[in-house]
Amino acid sequence: MHKKLKKSKKLESLDEKMLVIKDFIHVFYNETLFKNGKKMAADLPSSFIKALFAFSDPDSEVPIGELGKNARVKSSTMTDMVDRLEQAGFAERVRSDGDRRVVNVRLTEKGKKIRQDFSQMRRQEFQALFSKLQEEDTLHLIFHLDEAAKILKKIH
Question: What is the CATH number of domain 41-156?
């Protein structure tokens, strides 16, 4: 929390609320996820990561519409993301045997490997972050992030 704000003080103005959010984002992204300006995880655009993890099963063939739902983006946006995955050699489009109009997407071996490597790297990064905290602080952090996510979901 910002130094000028006290725990007991209510955040009455919009500026005070925005300052708390700005401080959180700064600490979380700049001092936690990024070190010295470098990404802690694979040097991939966030859209690639989002698209790779839209596959609930990395070995499945999935329609673009379903990938869009999984990634919480419009189908047109997902189509662009799949185009970029294809160009990078991470995914390929496949036509359905039963209906040639149906086009699914599947990860290539390269795409599966980068997805797995990213997942393992992310787990190691978070393990390193949590190892710097006391167990009680970790529990509080996770509890409050979960509560914040629930509150934010009410907005939509």
Answer: 1.10.10.10
